[in-house]
Amino acid sequence: MIGFATRRIVQAMIVMLVVALLAFTMFRFVGDPINQMVGIETSIEDREALRDRLGLNDPVPVQFFRFITKAAQFDFGTSYQFRQPVSELFAKRIPATLELSFASAVFALVVGIPMGIYAGLNRESPISKLFLSVSLIGISLPTFFIGILLIFLFSVTLQWLPSFGRGETVQIGSWWTTGFLTISGLKALILPSITLGLYQMTLIMRLIRAEMLEVIRTDYIKFARARGLPDRLVNFRHALKNTLVPVITITGLQLGAIIAFATITETVFQWPGMGLMFLQAVQNVDIPIMSAYLMLTAFLFVTINFIVDILYFFIDPRLRVGRP
Amino acid sequence: MSVLDIKDLRVEFPGRKSVFVAVDDVTLSVDAGKVLGVVGESGAGKSTVGNAVIGLLQEPGHIAGGEVYLHGKRIDQLPYKEKRRLRGRKIGMIFQDPLTSLDPLQTVESQLVETIRTHLPLSRSQARQRAIDLIEAVGIPDASERIKQYPHQFSGGMRQRVVIALALCAEPELVIADEPTTALDVSIQAQILELMKELCRERNVAMLVITHDMGVIADITDHVAVMYHGELVEYGETIQVLGAPEHPYTQSLISAVPRPDIKVERFPVVNYIEKAGTPQKQIDIATHWLGKARDYEKVTGPLVQIKDLDMQFETRGSIFPSKRKYFKAVKKVSFDINEGETFGLVGESGSGKSTIARLITGLYQPTGGSILFGKTELTSLKNRKDVLAMRRQMQMIFQDPYSSLNARMRVSDIIAEPIKFHRLASSNAEVRQIVDDLLDHVGLGAAAGKKFPHEFSGGQRQRISIARALATRPRFLICDEPTSALDVSIQAQILNLLKDLQQELGLTMLFISHDLAVIRQMCNRIGVMRHGELCEVADCDQLFEAPQHPYTRELLNLMPSLELLSRANLATA
Lengths: 324, 573
Description:
The complex is a heterodimer of chains A (324) and B (573). With 324 residues, chain A is mainly α. Chain A is built from 14 helices and two strands; from the N terminus they run αααααααββααααααα. In chain B, strand 9 (223-228) and strand 10 (231-237) form a beta hairpin. In chain B, strands 6-7-8-3-9-10 form a six-stranded mixed sheet, sandwiched between helices. In chain B, strands 16-17-18-13-19-20 form a six-stranded mixed sheet, sandwiched between helices. In chain B, helix 13 (411-421) packs across helix 14 and helix 13 packs parallel to helix 15 (458-470). The A-B interface holds A 218-220, 222-231, 233, 237-238, 241-242, 315-318, 321-324 and B 54, 56, 84-89, 92-93, 95-97, 100-107, 114-115, 118-119, 150, 152-153, 163, 166-167, 169-170, 315-316, 325.
């Protein structure tokens, strides 16, 4: 297990290095950073002096090494638009995105898993067929459209829920702000998290259904029935647990996707998170924010995948014992 | 009163267009402490009988008529919940494949304890103690430790013992065993059968054994029921039925079982079962394409000479060579195969016999030793052209006829492919003619070429495999368990076909099987393998009459005795 974990960590570091290289090249090839920083009337000498001061004249490997060392300390430089350290900007925005992602992941799992189990066990029932056809809508409609639809229905027509923002937030510690503790914060979470989690929910539901159908046909389920075990034990202890391995893989990847690609939902709901900031950064060619976002996303994916790999060990005993 | 009474059972599977009757008018009974065998070929409905008794018929199958009694109490009409309470408590079931019948994610203990506590009012620790006792009773040493392990930590035979413990854990009165030893090696099969016999007697359990294997029937059953197409054709005491079968189906079924005791020229062909595929149009080998260009270079001495062959697989990779671990599948094996003979390799699973076949054909590269084919050293062939020329001369027939044919290709394309690849015919018209002739010759008829593999039965598919192997005009044919997946009657036909082809074409064959009786009928000389080593090589009769190596003797002893079987009608073969 330890050998396996170390191997995975080494692989993860290689992935991070490659991503860092990409993030680094962005500085060099997406426009000249000096031009972005200074005004038109700056003289060429001043530009050269700035260039030298920022170390842009150093050899490329030296610059890359400097970039990595700083990135490892969460120092991504200063934003061109806001003239503030990028890490501070992110620190302000991360809580909003993480809370939104968490809420939508919980929504996707809590609704998706039971629906999937039900549809897998009662294949022919009309409710399963209803789940399947409704889930098709979840998969085929684009996120922004669902968001606008929900806003139209619940904010404009019914006026039940707010259409934008996080509502009131409470400060916890030095930099975390939460919307979970106020009623307006919770209300503001509902629509965006459903919008963001709908696709994942349908995916998880369909996956669990397909896996369940597969597992139900196996010999050990037949044998469990032939031993007279009650349906509850057969379905949940034996069948469900065996469906979990592929489900966890996909869920882990999807969780990464939720966090990283909340961009559209955040834009539709004007959610003050990282995605919204990233979109603004792209419009203004704010390269430090873009490259930091890239690194952060990659880091999240790599971490989640690592956790998923470790989880396998707890679920599947066949992986725990080293082969002879 | 019998433990189990089945009266006029009829099971139907309603289909889209018509109702399929899987079991019709079957009447059986089993007494306590006795074993009833239900025997028949695939599709005979024997498993359906077992599933109907325990109430696990696959939807939409259902009992359409008749009655099932357990200790005089009718059980076929019980509501779902009461039926479920019978399962495990009154009726235990043992399945065919021990590798897949246990939940891989639960320890043996938790599976046993949950089953015991479902049926008996015991505390967790009492159930645990009972589980340990059971594991001991089915012959697994070190029970209190082993019980904490997961199924994958047990070997196949041990897992089947766990399955038996699970089936017996609430002391059922009836045990239904569906092909309990089909997936096991002969030596393990003998042990498991012995265990089942013992448990049945000790615990006074009635046992229903469903199998296609006459050896199993002869070995452990007291009574036997022979099924054919869902109907009971013969039913009586085992000695009676096997010794003096009355029904023509039983007679032909028994005669198709390969004999381990003496060698006969051809297998008795059973016409009762499936139209024996006689060649629709015999081709004259002497003038036909198939018989031409057989002027391979003459060899003096054996055609295939294998010397000190070694093969190891890496089981644990590492960047440090000292940390790598290897599994030696073949260790220093040497033998010769003479031109025109059939050399048999026999051994249990994992003995390395299939690995040797793969080494000869070049599917694996050996880690040591040499393989001499004629005058060519196969292990040092580098030139692609030479490799192809060698491959054309040797062909392989695989065990599983379901996965060895490409399901998306028409049969005619499957057979034409090697001819075109090796450019053995001058025109497409000639290729088509050859394919048609080959299909005729293996007994399928040229019309079969237009179909896809899934439209054929297992035996017919194996004929397609043979036709494909012949399509390169090979000199050397490797058959890796060619009939293990087939029913006995079909097996007899396929083996006869192979024998005929060998005589007509002068083929040299390497025949791999775990079945000693089949080996005896097919081979001139035999090599016995165990754990990657060749124990003994001897002429067929000598090996069976006077085995030298202790392992050979052990294998021969383990063969189910078929003395009970009537061989009276062999004369007609």
